Amino acid sequence: MKYWRTPLDTQEVLVTRGIVHIIEERCKGCGYCIEYCPKDVLVFSTRFNAKGYHPPEVKRPDDCVNCHYCEIICPDFAIYSVEDPSGPAGVGG
Ligand code: SF4
Ligand code: SF4
Question: 74 is in which domain, residue-wise?
Answer without folding.
Answer: 14-85
